[in-house]
Automatic annotation (TrEMBL), chains A, B:
This is Nucleosome assembly protein. It comes from Cryptomonas curvata. The keyword Coiled coil applies. InterPro entries: NAP-like_sf (IPR037231), NAP_family (IPR002164). Residues 7-41 form a coiled coil. Residues 207-247 have a biased composition (Acidic residues). Signal peptide: none annotated. The lineage of its organism: Eukaryota, Cryptophyceae, Cryptomonadales, Cryptomonadaceae, Cryptomonas. Keywords: Coiled coil. Pfam families: NAP. One of its GO terms (biological process) is nucleosome assembly. Belongs to the nucleosome assembly protein (NAP) family. Residues 203-247 are annotated as: Disordered.
Length: 247, 247
């Protein structure tokens, strides 16, 4: 066309070489994805083993989630009692019907909040179009227990307990709102779970979040203060009333 | 130790599983690196072919570098005349003597600025320690032509030509300062060249920098205004006096 004639250049040759380079780049990308899948499969039995072990540690996931400095801001104190019943957190690759993505599933023991045993959130991309589809499970809240409704009565027995005073808790949405919303973009909560927590949950359980501001760095395990002021990070005082009341 | 006894938990089992998962992650990472190297080798002949083609297009690398919206801020107008002589830009993986990294080499035609035919900058990491070693080639400037010295007389015949008026050029360091400095961290210039330009130089040559602010998006090819106000992005007006005076 005009422009090319003006500068008196034919770029066909260059474009052909770039196409060849691009084809190799795409091929590499595909192989990387395959390799990644292969290793996901290899890791699966280990993830399952880890899930089993973690489910036996009282409040493992509650403490782990709360020790992620960014994620914890999406959990309000009313969620704590409910998340004490979270026994299994699982992150699975999804790859079916031309869709690819991640499924986050949360399995709870019998609890006074909702009837579901398992709730999930799933982000899937259409491999052709790239379109994102978000799927979530509706939560069957028990009467008066819906934590996503502002002012919902969260937990009777915990009322008045002086935990996590520092937070302006009224302004923090419930973690369970995540299961309500079908975002257009992948949410940071999913990313934090997959990229941070899932890679080393024990690190977070122990409170070693590298990205933390450092304030809580020396908050050790085993400080089982009965009821004290030390629970800001969802610390170990929850150990006492943990892990029972279920199945 | 104390803490673990307190919470009455033995995390050995969990740690062992996490170690196994980590080992697989490391293995995957290694394979990814291998795959990447394999494809770099496959691409090499194509890169060489591309280099040959580009070297025949007048001012190819000058225009390509200038059309990178971030990189262009590291090139001052006095550099232009020198970069017209840049015939080959090459990016090569370096992997020897336990060091791994990238070598950027710039081959020039005979020019009035320096005696080197080739100048390079190299970033290498020690595979064991992770330590970064930066290596650069000294430029043998001809008398009075050192573009990295402020106020150096860049080019006689271009003086007074009204190109690229918009820039407060005195405040922009010469691009060639990059070859002086041995940064502690890898410089953005290297990243831009490797991650952006090297992946699709033709795109940049044509002025299709996705990251651009959009102002110059409709700046087409072939607008060969003699000397006009349209040259802000190192556009095509340089075509006229391009590609001679060398070899």
């Amino acid at each position: 066309d005009m422009a090319e004639e003006d500068v008196d250049q034919d770029f066909t040759e260059l474009q052909e070489v770039e196409d060849k380079i691009r084809a190799l780049t795409d091929e590499l990308e595909e192989k990387m994805v395959e390799l990644d899948k292969e290793y996901s499969k290899k890791k699966r039995p280990l993830f399952d083993e880890r899930i089993k072990i973690c489910s036996k540690i009282p409040n493992f996931w509650l403490n782990t989630l709360l020790n992620h400095s960014e994620l914890q801001e999406y959990i309000n104190t009313s969620d704590y009692d409910c998340l004490r019943h979270l026994k299994i957190l699982d992150v699975q690759d999804v790859d079916q019907d031309g869709m690819q993505g991640t499924r986050y599933s949360f399995t709870f023991t019998k609890n006074p909040f909702f009837d579901n045993q398992m709730i999930f959130k799933e982000f899937k991309y259409n491999k052709e179009s790239g379109e994102l589809v978000v799927d979530t499970s509706p939560i069957n809240w028990k009467d008066g227990c819906n934590l996503t409704l502002k002012g919902a009565q969260s937990s009777k027995e915990e009322k008045g307990k002086g935990k996590r005073e520092a937070t302006e808790d009224n302004e923090v949405q419930s973690f369970f709102c995540w299961f309500d919303s079908r975002e257009e973009t992948e949410s940071p909560i999913g990313d934090w779970i997959r990229e941070d927590i899932w890679k080393d949950p024990f690190k977070y359980f122990c409170g070693d979040d590298d990205d933390e501001d450092g304030e809580e760095d020396d908050e050790g395990e085993g400080e089982e203060g009965e009821d004290g002021e030390d629970g800001e990070e969802g610390g170990e005082e929850e150990e006492e009333d943990a892990g029972e009341g279920d199945e």
